[in-house]
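Batch manifest, entry 17 of 40.
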Amino acid sequence: MTVQTIDIGGDLTVNRSGFGAMRITGRGIWADPPDKDAAIAVLRRAIELGVTFIDTADSYGPAVSETLIADALHPYPDELVIATKGGLERPGPGVWEPNGRPEHLREACDGSLARLQLDQIPLYQFHRPDPAVPLKESIGALVELKDAGKIRHIGVCNVTENELDEAEAMTPIVSVQNRYNLADRRSESLVDRCEIAHQAFLPWAPIQDLPRSGAVQEIAKRHDATPTQVVLAWLLARSPAMLPIPGTGSVEHLEENMAAADLDLRGDEVEALTKAR
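Output type: structure tokens
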């Protein structure tokens, strides 16, 4: 596999082909997976394939994804960076409710530390701004956690440019995680902003909304690749700030996703895909 790296926060270097650990949980991102051994096999295979960045959250399960990561991989390889998130609660399957209260974020961080068996979380991300809580209060809680040594770097998710401005006025923000893929580019300006600022951009749902465009199908055929691999290769080509985190509960799909790093798109192919929607 071709290894492309990115620096997070100036002191964490990871492979740009990351792994999102949302789908190792049960149906609806709720409860335990139907086959725990299979979920653990996916995590261990990810490390074998060169993954050095795993993205998770306390709300995945809830608590299930973080626990499985520790069960499968602890003690962790020195090069592995685990990023997790707080700020969403799960009262039931398929339900995601924001909670940006400082007391909740402190409890969420402590829970993540315990489940992941970490003394410090390398990258802790605020999962989603809470309309009921001023953003400065939520980010302020993360600053306190950083000052206490519980987290190393702070990232934000699902933010607008104005919200990113507000967060950056309080503390260094090393990463942004917003929905972004070939078909959904509402965060286009944030990708460019992250590249200029040397921040990592983590596109969630990187292979959803897979377009049935002729460009994707034609390029996939030309390279003897899958459409999924084509869109992941496009993301890697889109910006050096991009850190895709496709998730799966299948070893087969994991191997397919990771092989996208070996797909060398030509300049005209990148342009054709950029124009495809």
